[in-house]
Amino acid sequence: MENNDTLILNWTPFFGEQTWEHYRIDYCGSDLPPCLITHNPTYLIQSHLLVFHAPDVNWEDLPDKEIRNIYNNKMPWVYYSAEAPAREWEFDDDKMKMFEFSLSYRLDSDFPSTYLDEDLTAIIRSPSYQFKDRKQVPVAWVVSNCHASNGVVPIVDGPSDYTPFAPTNHSLIQIDQFSSPEDLASYILSLSENEQAYTSYLSYKNNSTPLSEEFVKYWQ
Fold first, then answer.
1. How much is the pTM?
2. Beta 23-25 vs 35-38: how paired, if at all?
3. How far is residue 148's CA from residue 104's CA, in Å, rounded to a whole number?
4. How many CB atoms lie under 10 A from the CB of residue 9?
5. Could you tell me which residues come within 8 angstroms of residue 40 by beta carbon, excluding any fewer than 6 positions away?
6. How distant, in Å, are the alpha carbons of 51, 68, 103 from that of 63?
7. Which pLDDT does position 114 carry in this prediction?
8. Across 3-56, where does the E strand assignment appear?
9. 105, exposed or middle or buried, with CB in 10 Å at 0-12, 13-18, 19+?
10. How far apart are CA 19 and CA 10, in angstroms?
11. Other Cβ atoms within 10 Å of 75 Cβ, number
């Protein structure tokens, strides 16, 4: 470790492993020297930032936050998770307030971090999709860490605004637009048998079809 490094201490492991030990980030901001990541808790006093990976947090083994008073609160805590909240403490406002920053897949995080390293606007353009190649089962449940193929029409439920995630304004099916599960099921079945209607949801794979400005802003 060099004396002028910006030291980031991963207080927790990453899924039980000290994955980022001695990992160096050359650019950490225009006014900061390079960052060095460590899992070594003996560097607590020298650290500039503490990162806590949510699945590995042990509430019986946390540093004393009062130690930050010695350094004028210049040792912020970062909540890090690449998954949707699944632990009881993640819904506890008092505990979540202990973290000054968030690093997660959410676009409204202080430090958004997705699973995608490439330009998503290029990824979704290929491969080209043929209706005849579709699966015979009309619905698949896509969950975390699932590498879905590019020939599917997403069926989504959750926030009312999906514009950051929709390549066009006709590229996904929103559950709340149907009056009942039966209506949704009926629509899905009819869509699976209608090539023109189905492929209209995948028009963004045609390079001549413009992507929405909101989608490009987030993912290009």
1. 0.69
2. antiparallel
3. 21
4. 24
5. 9, 21
6. 11, 10, 19
7. 75
8. 6-10, 23-25, 35-38, 49-53
9. middle
10. 10
11. 21
Respond yes or no on whether the N-terminal peptide bond of residue 127 is cis (omega within 30° of 0): yes
Residue 216 corresponds to which tokens in the numbers above? 């490009």
Helix (H, G, I), strand (E, B) or coil at 31: coil
Give 116-144 as a DSSP string. --S-HHHHTT-S---GGGS-SSS-----T
The pair of structure tokens assigned to 93 is 């406002």
Token pair of 132 as six digits: 């005849």
And the tokens for 65? 């936050």
Residue with tokens 């699932």: 146
Beta bridge partners of 38: 9
Tokens of 36: 């060095």
pLDDT (tens digit per residue) in 139-179: 766 665 555 555 678 888 877 788 888 889 998 999 988 99
What is the Cα–Cα distance from 133 to 64, expressed in whole angstroms?
57
